[in-house]
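Predict the assembly for these three chains.
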Amino acid sequence: MGVKPIVSVAQLKKWFPVQKSFLERLFAREKTHVRAVDGVDLVVNAGETLALVGESGSGKTTLGKLILRLIDPTSGKIYFNGKDITNVTGESLRRLRRRMQIIYQDPYASLNPRMTIGEILEHPLKIHKIVSTKQEAKEQILNVLEKVGLTPPDEFYNLYPRNLSGGQRQRVAIARAIILKPELIVADEPVSMIDVSLRASILNLMIELKSELNLTYIFITHDLAVAKYIADNIAVMYLGKIVEKAPSIELFTNPLHPYTQALLSAIPIPKPLHERRRRLSISGEISSPINIPTGCRFHPRCPFSRERCIRDEPSFIEVCREHHVACWLTTK
Amino acid sequence: MYTFKPILTKIIPKMPLKTMGVAGLLMIITVILMAVLANFLTPYDPTKSVGLSLQPPSLNHPFGTNKIGQDMWSRIVHGARTMLLVVTLSTIMSIVIGVPLGLISGYVGGILDRILTMIMDAIYAFPSLILAIAIAAALGPGIVNTAVSIAIVYVPTYFRMVRGQTLNVKSQLYVEAAVAIGAGPISILARYILPNVISIVVAVFTLSVADVVLTEAGLSFFGLSVPAPTPDWGFDLRAGHPYLVSGYWWLVTFPGLMIIILAVGFTFLGESISEYLGLREVRA
Amino acid sequence: MSDTLLEIGNLKTYYFAHGSVIKAVDDVSLGIYKREMVGLVGESGSGKSTLGLSIIKLVPPPGKIVDGKIIIGGEDLLKLRDKELRRIRGRKIGMIFQDPLTCLDPLRRVGDQIIESIMSHIKVNKEAAREMALKVFERVGISPERIDDYPHQLSGGMRQRAMIAMAVVLNPELLIADEPTTALDVVVQSRIMDLLEDLKNERKMSILLITHDLALVIERCDRVVIMYAGRVCEIGSVKEVSNEPLHPYTKLLIESIPNIEGTQMELKPIPGTPPDMRNPPPGCRFWPRCPYVLDKCKSVEPSILEIDNRVVFCHLYGG
């Protein structure tokens, strides 16, 4: 089976200007940008599920939106199916959207309260002229509602988002993402706001849909457990850069970056604490993305940091099969 | 700005919402009925002299007659037409101009937004009556002209509120979701932003229409509204007030009362609707 | 038991809106002992947050506590007047929330807020209060110079710590923590939980940890209370409940926790959805989703069953 990249980004950066008053601007030095994404190289293969993992402030959501061109990059390049989409705008961008969709975290905020479920799902079909009659549209909508488990579909067709529960709304969001039969879906924390007992069914649905519709997922989450369950590969982000990337199982059994190790050991495990293995604890808080530390950006919190870590930024290198890491400990 | 709100809240501080709304609605309906049924409510032609001059209220002339001998009741009842016509026309014009401009300005942003906002702020900064007077004086008398003068004065109110709400809605996640499915700007404005902005238009309307009433009255007071002999409450107010000293109270009381009833009615209704919708205070 | 710090008896808190009644907390009884951390676990609609708010009578309208008693130090909190309650809040019972900005006024410096809170409860002058504030800040891990910062100048984790500082500065006997770490990432969460545990041991304080994260509770708490749709399902020590869950809901919840440590993973969903709280199912509220449902469950509410130190509400055990 040939492995073909569906998305690749090169040295991708997104810096947001910080609002400053005139006087502040006069006296400030370079530190006037929030470096949400600060130089990311990434390749996602067709049919893969890649999890982007990190805490808030890591840049994972920004990276996801950059790939979908919902945000314009500050610098770097984005390729979709080999084509350079970095500067695509207007009509071509809108047409491109048909092939890449998004599922948002908040099922309450991502659906227009003034449209019925039917209208919400019909709109993408109309925009891209997929159907020519209302009847055809309704057929496809009912079909997709059935697929995401909202049955009987005709009942949901005329309801408004406010008539639905959080879990049901998220299914509508998934339906909206798949109705155009895209190739790529970026899922931004799709189950974080869903009840714990319902998460598994939504995740299972997404896995089913993936094989049925030949999708590629970029799955953004802060929950490593969810990542392990759903992803083939996991990329760990910290302060705007990817610090480690490996196949799921490999990452869990052999985490190389101290940040990954700390993340893994901090996940609550249903066993009383004193019975557990020793935890790797890291100090302090994530630095502000306005004030990125020198050298390796994790060094202020790293229990193993050495002189080199403060001076030089480590490169992102493949250390064993498919396993990349940016850390002086491993890569010398 | 002419509003009775400060006075009203002191006089009737604890009036429950529903009562206020219903009271307001009744007042407005009364005036509307007057306007619609004008011809049936009075046998006299309000523009012609039909009685002796300066007669106090009597069976024949329930509101008395004025200096020229016109029947005051007829003038009041037909004056309701004039007032309501001007108010309706000018409100429609304000909305038709202010709302789309607010939508576009808020959504598109940039230089267009800055220029429009500057213009609107400039108009808004003028005391409404003075600006209306200036425009009306330039345009001349007539129902349409009067409506236009008043409309211009209130366009900024609709513009600002709609622009503000547009900015608010624009940042909602479902609007970004619409971009993500490939919707174009017109589609987004029409189906995602406008429906979520409409409620604020209703709010602005309910709270500013009382002001419009008073502005019209003000204009006609200065004779800048419709030309005599068309009946107009503000005009009658001014025509009648020199005689007040001599005791001819009915010339002034009834027109004044009608203006108050209509303005207070709209205020009551507006306040209760916007409280009901849970909207914050809108300054008209 | 003289070891009991707080006792909740038959608490009922309902929300009255639009002509319907939501029985958010419907006849809940439980006890919190001294110096223990109790986890109150449930998903949305379970009533856990409402229960926490009921203890210090901060249930927002249209909610109302309609029945029950809450006894601490011999006093029934539900019978106290506002003035007496204010004495208890902050001094005997502290509370922290998921969003620090619910307690921290964004327009005032954090130091000032703590100082004001201190001075409203005990008779000290401003300098002494400031001393206390500085000390507690240091204890929770915020460097003292940040006492004059505004909330927006602090990071998420630090705001959480500031809120904790404000809640524990007067050494309350009970700290109610409502989803304190849900919005934080796993590393910060772990450190905040460390802090809470240390505070509990140092200050001989009990903590009621309200959360949906059962794994967190099993990891950190002494005892656990499982709630579903306004009622209690099961109460017991964390060790016993996690090793041998009695209530079917508890079993399913534990099974749905993703297993990080193994290589094989299967997420087991709990079928069905939480009930509409305006119209919960009759009998045991969990029966539509229960794999072990009996006929009796559909009409008869299970009553309390005490087995050793455990409590369960389930017909499977003859309840």
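The domain at 4-92+213-259+267-317 of chain C is CATH 3.40.50.300 (Rossmann fold). Chains C and B do not touch (no CB pair under 8 Å).
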